[in-house]
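Re: your question from the hallway

Yes, I did run it. Sequences:
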Amino acid sequence: MSRFVRKAPSVCTDRPLNNSDVSTKLRSLKQLLTSCLGPTGRLKHVQNNIGGHVVTTSSSSVLLTSVTSSQPIIDLISSSILHHVSRFSDCGLFAAVLCLSLIQEAKQSGVSRQVNKHLLSLCTSYLQHEHCGCRVPVDLSSTQDLITLSLSVVSSKPACVLTEAEALHVSRLAVRAFLLTVPCGGPGPVTLGRTLSVGVEGASVLHSEVFPGLLVEVRDVFCLRTAETLRSDPLRVVLFSTSLAGDLCELGDGIIQVHPGVDTDSQILDQLLELCECVIRDGVKLFVCQKVVHPVLQQYLRRHGVMVMERVGLSLMEPLALLTGALPVATLHATIPAKAYGTVKEVSVKEFGSKTMLHLEPAGESAICTMTLCHRNETMLSELKVVCQQTEHVLRLTLKEPSALLGGGCTETHLAAHIRHQSVQEVAESASALGCSQTEYLLGVEGFCRSLEAVAAALHHDGGDSFMDLTHAHHWTRPADAMTENMEDNSALCCGCGMVQSGPTVDMKWTHLNTEHPEFSPAALLKDRAVQPRVLDSFTAKLNALQVAVETANLVLDVRFVIQDTN
Amino acid sequence: MMLPVAQLPHLEHVLQTVSVLESVVLSSFGPEGGQVLFTRDTGQAMLSRSGTKILTALRLENPLARMIVASVLNHSTVTGDGSKTFILLLASLLRMIHATACKEPNVSHTYNPRKAAVASTARHLAKRLLEFALEDLDDLIAVGVVPYGCCLPREDFTLKTRPPKSIPCVQKLLASFFHSRLGQTHCDFFSHLTCELLDNWKLKNDHPSVALQFINDNLPTLHTPVSGFPISCSRLIEGQVIHRDFATSCIRSDKPPVAAVILTGCLQPTLLRAGEVLELGCGDQQTAENSRKERSIVQFSAWAEKSLECAIANLQSVGVSVILSAVKQSAAVLALAAQAKICIVECVSEDELSLFAHLSGAKPVADCWMIEPDNIATLTFCRPILLGAHRYVHVAFHDSDKRPVVKPCSLIICGAGEGQTDQYACALHDAIRMLLSTWEPTGMTASKRTLQCNKSKSSIAEKQIPNSTSSQRCLSMPGCVVPAGGIFEFLLHHALLQHGHSCSASDETDMDILAVSQLLANALLSVPRQIYSHSPRCFLQTQTRLLRLVQSHSQRSGFADKLEQDTVLKECEDTSECTLDEGYRACIYIKILTCHQRRLCLTQASSPSAVNTICF
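Structure:
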């Protein structure tokens, strides 16, 4: 049905950032996202307007996809952040909050976008510099740093509702799963394997496990019964990617004339039985088919002690091929070459709550593993699954660039202090290079650093105050119920990332975040410290988030006119 | 149903409409201009600073405005630039004409006749303006502007090495173009990237425009947009990216070269074509007295499978390890190919296949039984590449003497979102088109002529055809560029005034030329006025500096004192917006005038049906 529909003219808005409606929306979006940031972030219920399924979450990817706005500027920001999250799986809220506060700051001060871009390049070059004070190398030979990294990701998602012990257990599992997917092959390009996850509802989180190989859910009783009888080692496997139901093959558009009395169905079935015979003769013990297997064939195979798994689906075919080393077969007449067969070491039956699973263990080295995740209810379980995928992604990014940034807001405050210091040092050159006055430039620097510090301060939601020490420029918090007003009087505190500790022996000064203080060059931490950081963020993800946030903020500040298509 | 009778387009209404368009376009004009955000009808947010994009996004209803937008589109499909200037100049010209017409002394003071008189004076002026533009403007540009421009050096496009460390002229041109398209923050990075792309795509012993034309035609397949990364991650990569994934799990053979074939048909033979009949019998029961064999379905499909196996074996025997297929292959083909260690890439688009064929020198083949040596492409590698969310196939070509291109490469354009990558890609395409029109002015005049022939029924447009020889004469100098920052408008303004005075001095009777050239000259200044809208002082400074240059220049010959001229022009460039090539500017004037002429005809049209015919 095609009908010419008259197109309505578009709606235009001049200078959208000065529009009060847009400003209000930007502000409320910022409030919404800020309240979700960090391990103590507040959860949000998301429900559509016809009263559908309720999702409880604090993650940027879910929140931003459900925030649909009539304002294209909001759409522009959220699509940028969502694209970042889909590439890096981390630091989405950081990017969003930073971007929104940069927009607010720049709108107030009215500085040119060139300043922001210049400051961004200062940030990226500092972060990549070898003397950077907030970057730590990740030691891939020990699991300590990797566990800290994944614990930071897991604990930043409060919607999983994990206790401390549970969070540690899950992050250990994530690291174990990650290590299992890294093949120990020789030199040359390495292809990482895959982690599949299976959710089990109702069990305790601490019962979650990681298995090398594949866990396939089976409902077929016969299949399970044969599984117990399989004892040879290793087991030969054949993998069919075509249907074995006995249907006619693709012939084309021609006409088929069948002579009376000819039973093509039984002819085809006979032929398939011949194929099975051949498979049995080759010593196959596990017969896997992506599609349907004819019941007669199944019975025939089972009688000969072969286990049949049918309808495994396309998504499992690739991991199965990787696990067993088999090449999928799609021909029914040709003899199956020996190299098309694969092997598994063992098949065993495992029970998880209500689920019965078949565990296929790889014969040799294989980069496939399965994670069974348990949680109390469905919502938390789905959030936990997402978190585990994100953790895996973050760990993979670390493999490419083995470094991490200090978490807990320390990177932000340290970076802000560094930028303040450096730009005051080079104010004359920078200002003339950017073609603005020195005051303008310093105003821009102040706005940029304040936005960075605002992200650090946003990590706390319980009414505590944010501080920064004047030596390392790390981020500190004083709980709301603290007895004294001054940071100096509190003994034995620890900064956000856990690298700096205060005590009676350490001479340290603090200042409230976002207050006037003399600029200083933040000192890097000593390299050979016994103290391990407690919170680490992915370096690659955070660097990209920083770049995307500044770039998006610049774009939004550059928008002069909005044309909305109302069709 | 009766059509609503529209109010007759009066000159004032015309002016009003154009002013509205102008105010929209101005928000993104000049060095201080910003982005325009618009939503597609799908709800996707897109960004642009391109005049054409903005104007089309408006979805105008006013027939007059739609006609103007249509002429802007025609203009910019040829030049790739200048659409905002088009609207600006049009508005300014109309204002000038209106003002002049109202001032005319022979206008009587009674209301209705006065209106008619204004309209007729305006119409007369516009007609003279068009005639002037068609006859004299090109010569004026050739004399008054071209000597102050410079030529894009051919070395920037050919294989000859240029002096190291100097920024190529093309890069400057591109930088100012991207400044007006992407904003100040990204213009340097992107112009550098584009220059690198051009460097890699230089053709052996060919005119620069051939290479540019090739990039222009193949840009959609040559670039891959990747969202989620900052723009600084954009880069060039060797070879070609085929925007499909391997259909079979890729078995990596590390030893080059890799042999590949382009297959346009299905590998699995069609067993039964339409109209053919397959007779099925009982199979092995073969009756001796009846020599006809009765085959069963099983035997038939076994035969089909066997033939497929032979086809794969044949491919294996010629050493092919990669098949780029235009169509989807059957599951049996994929399984057999995997067993034979042949990788298959399915459903590759036609454009990508033709580019691959062009770069590798291999001819596509429809049937795998007809493979000859010249159907086989040799690649240095063929591997999966992960770009953003997608996995693609990345191929690099083996060096060969047959290939016309020195270093084929593809461009990866990164941006924070799809709106941004799209904007970058469009800007790049327009930049290539702009360079192409700088090199090929003759082609442009030809297309312009056809456009006008097709479009307009007004007698003026037809009259213009014999005149086009003069425009060809002027524009036949390829690669001429004028420094940015309204220099072109200042120079032409000056030349027009001079011309007007000399004409009126020599011929007392022809006052029209004086009036017309003054009108055009004043209208022109509106463009630099907008460029320097943030500081009017700059506008005056640039103008005086240029006037001084022109006066000192007039005593000497054309290109002699290049050095001094360069220094002055460089000073101008400091405050400049964009370097614009001269060729298409001339085109703007001519096109604007025709458009304008038609609009004035509209004012005279007395019935709504006439308005409708002209508008559609």
